[in-house]
Each structure stands twice: as C-alpha cells, then as structure tokens.
Design a protein that fits this description.
5 helices, five-stranded antiparallel beta sheet, globular, Sulfite Oxidase, Chain A, domain 2, alpha+beta, 2 domains
Length: 177
C-alpha cells in the first residue's frame, strides 16, 4: 500500500514538473541549452539565439522529445496508408531557437537540400517528426528526422512545392538571411 501511494505521488510530481516545463515560455526553457547526451539527430546553425555546441544547436532524440510534441495522422505519396508522425511543430522549434524570420535551408544526410522562407513553415505547417507509428525512424526508413506536412489536413500542402519540402533523412537546418 505504501508503494502504491509512493507511485501516485511520483506520478503527480512528474505531471506537475512536465506541466510547468510546457507552460514556460520557449525562451525560458532554452536558457542553458544542454549538450546532447545521445547521438545527435539534428544540428541547427545560422541566425539562431540558442546554441549548445559552438555556434550550433545540436539535438538528440531525448532533447526533441522534451520539447512540446504533437502527433499528426496523414498519408504521403511515399508511404502506404495513414501513418502517425510524432515530433515538434516546426513553428515551435524555430520559436524555441529564437528564429523569427529568414530562410530555412534543410539538408538531408545525402546532401539533398531545400530552402523556403521561415514564414512558410509556421501556421498549420510541418512537423519535425522523429517517430512514425510510435517507432524511431531509421535512416533506411526516412529517419532520423522527417520534415513532414499534414497533407490530409490541408489541401494547400498537396502539391509539388510542399512535396519537395517534405525532406526526410534530415540532419541539418541552417537559418540564413
């Protein structure tokens, strides 16, 4: 019985801590951005306010999971059926890093790169997904990170412009002016 009470208290405390972290403004959460403890999945450079390794912000999966996450369900032209993608909304990620404008250059492991104005990636926009159907995405399976749009939710995303921006095997983002 004492063990059950301890578990309930621990669950409540964990919930309160998580609620407080999510309620903090992104700038307050980002102060003292820690270096990644695990394998780096995504490195951001350029015109950013938050860094942790030199002039870059490097993220492992645990760091991405600590940011406010959401899950979208969508079909894509590259996968079969409806899949669930979990990650950080690009607009939230950029706000966390202090990015307000400029051009986002996203580059994949194979050096495929796309560019678009930061403003295009904001409202109802893409997700920096690191899970598909609850599983980590391997490089072979379009991971470690896939910039994916909610194609089924917004018809405006169902065209070549946005399909080309849906970059998988994403490992680098640069914010340029």
């Amino acid at each position: 019985m004492l063990q059950l009470a301890f578990l309930k208290v621990r669950t409540v405390v964990a919930s309160l801590v998580m609620s407080a972290a999510v309620a903090l403004p992104f700038s307050a959460q980002a102060e003292g951005l820690a270096a990644p403890a695990g394998d780096v999945m995504l490195t951001v450079s350029g015109d950013i306010e938050m860094t942790n390794i030199g002039a870059t912000a490097a993220f492992d999966q645990e760091m991405l999971a600590a940011l406010p996450n959401l899950t979208i369900s969508t079909t894509t032209i590259w996968t079969e059926g409806i899949n669930e993608y979990t990650g950080v909304a690009l607009k939230d990620f950029l706000a966390f890093l202090g990015v307000e404008d400029g051009t986002l250059r996203a580059t994949a492991i194979n050096d495929y790169a796309i560019e678009f104005p930061v403003a295009d990636g904001l409202e109802d926009g893409p997700l920096l997904a690191y899970l598909r159907n609850g599983e980590t995405m391997s490089v072979r399976d379009k991971g470690p990170v896939w910039l994916i749009f909610p194609f089924d939710d917004e018809p405006k995303f169902q065209n070549e412009e946005y399909y080309s921006r849906s970059i998988w095997q994403l490992d680098r983002i640069e914010i340029v002016e």
